[in-house]
User: What shape does this take?
Amino acid sequence: MNNILQLKGRFEKRKNDSGFGPVKLPAKKSVTSLHLNDLAAQLIRIKEYWVKNQDIAGAIVSVHYTRVVAKSNRLRILLSEKGKSPVDSICGAKFVTETLVNGEKIHKHVFTHYVQIEVIEKAISNLTIASRIIEEEFDGKITSEDTEKLGKDYQYSRKDMKKTNFLYTVLDAFFVEYFDIDMSDEAVTEESIITIYRTNVETKKLLAKFGINILETRIIDGTTILLSPDEARLLYSKAPYLIAMSVADFSQIKLEDISDDKIENDSEKIIPNPSNEPTVGVIDTHFDESVYFREWVEYRNMLPPEISLEKRDFYHGTAVTSIIVDGPKGNPELDDGCGRFKVRHFGVSKQSGFSSFAVLRNIRDIVASNRDIKVWNLSLGSPEQIKDNFISPEAAELDRIQSEYDVIFVVAGTNVPNGVTKKDMRIGSPADSLNSIVVNAVDYKGNSASYTRRGPVLSFFHKPDVSYYGGDGTKQDEQIAVCINDLGAVYRVGTSFAAPWISRKLAYLIHVMGLSREVAKALIIDSAAGWRGNREISDTVGYGIVPKRIEDILSTKDDEIKFIMMGTAEEYEMYTYSLPVPVVNGKHPFYARATLTYFPHCDRNQGVDYTSTEMDIHFGRVKTTGEKTKIYSIDDNKQADEGQLIYEEEARNIYRKWDNVKRICEKIKKRAVPRKSYDAGIWGISIYTKDRIASKNREMMQFGVVITLKEMYGKNRIDDFIKMCMAKGWIVNRLDVENQIEKVKYDLDHIV
Assistant: This one.
């Protein structure tokens, strides 16, 4: 086995000096004056509505596009305020799905803007004037050829509208199908967490206008509120235009039912006292302090003192924590070589259920007050399916926390509830958290567990991330042994008991091996995926099953070279053209793959456009032609190439645009064909960073990359690679996991 290598060196940086290019319609496309008149008429009706209804001190307008559109194809002049871009007024986004005559389903973007009446009036004027110009100058239809001529040498002499404004109006109108005021009409029967569109009116005052008076404690993040059924129905009745998204407050979330049957006494309950082991955070039901490993756990009850706890309120949380502290003791077949971990356990729920809104308020305070903890395990989840067009409030809060703090959450993928026979049930919150590692369960044979639920999230993002052994079936040897009290082991199944094993591995990678959370997450995903192609990613298993042993994550086969790199996205492009890949007879006899992870800021109010930052990876051979140096990426990624037109939906589907996990992998073929070597065998990496909303004060974001090279003929060329890297100025460290595992074994064998 070869050790994983850590390469430390310098990434060069480059600002984005390219513009949007000429303002013109796409090739062979056109816009009619009739379409502009229709859009103007729609805005007139919307304006009249908001003139009569002035509760929100402005207007909410939904822009329905003809397709999934890139940032550069969204409104540029229509609905723009002076000195601002139309994107600044976006307060919500979603997809609508339409079925064509041939049965094909297409997605279309819908963006919701909050603007003033004057902005709508200005848009009406622009559309009306532009329509008149098209009628008088272009016989009622302007084509792509017309816009190209107009941008170059056409003599534009109109006084009623500047040429640039005219072209922007035409381009906006081309991508917009229609304007509307979207009204939410869900039936409400239970307490709900509702997110309203952000307006210029403070939330409490705005709700009071509709007869809804709430305390500040029922508001999170300014626009997410907890309402009773009567209050929710009142809001839907009086202001359906205000509701961006709504979910039930899961006051009766059912956890894995852990009773105290099937107890197997364990006479050998010896465990050493903890010393300097890493601490993992657990947020769950409560912890039974009578268990044999109690010295390893610091327990805090986060519920109000007036809430009484019953015996069963301690089962689930104690079981989860038992795996993190000492899981291999009862499950020797899952011994991961990671040793034991201390746990700081926060009891936030009763077994019978909890208010997700209360947990929502709790989690941030817990993480902020325990900054020494890097890995958090959350095995609580909703029995309800996630919604198609927005992230759950619980997942959004986890994503915000992970973008603000240097922590990572491991979240159970949620189970199909007992008694529910619905097939293909989607995962429940907070398993839709994008920054977290979401874990589904498989049985000991590697098959998806019978209780498995599936992704994706927002019709696009891969969830779960990975899978691990959570047990399945009715026999003890098919289940996971956990500890719930001082009587011994019980045997249970569920994603709740798969997730803690991944928490153990992450804690080892971060605390013992000293890796960043970005690299640790990338290693977990890369180890699960192996050489699978991107089309083999499963909605139930994710990228794959994580290996049992930690050394199988931190080492690789003799014919493979695996190395990790860390960096910070300081500019638009971070790159290096100095990775020397061994050359044999003028060619590279290697297959290659790369996994990139990062933790972007996320905005739930942006709906399907949830992640605010995009990192795009290019990895492959470097070739210099004249004054231009180019990376020929192994996935043929041309997104950053000049003159390349790639539609937004294509970029998302093929290159995973806006996904916070990027994985590119070559397919291993029966007939090996080494690739030609360019520029003395040098390869390179480029990381391109783009934001949905341009910001001069964007925080620099960390990223982690795991790269694997597989020798086509089974040769071990790692020593050659190390020597060449050092010659190029790289600092090369071997991650020596064997020494760490021997130390763990020594500690376990010398109980005092």
Observations:
- The longest helix spans residues 117-138.
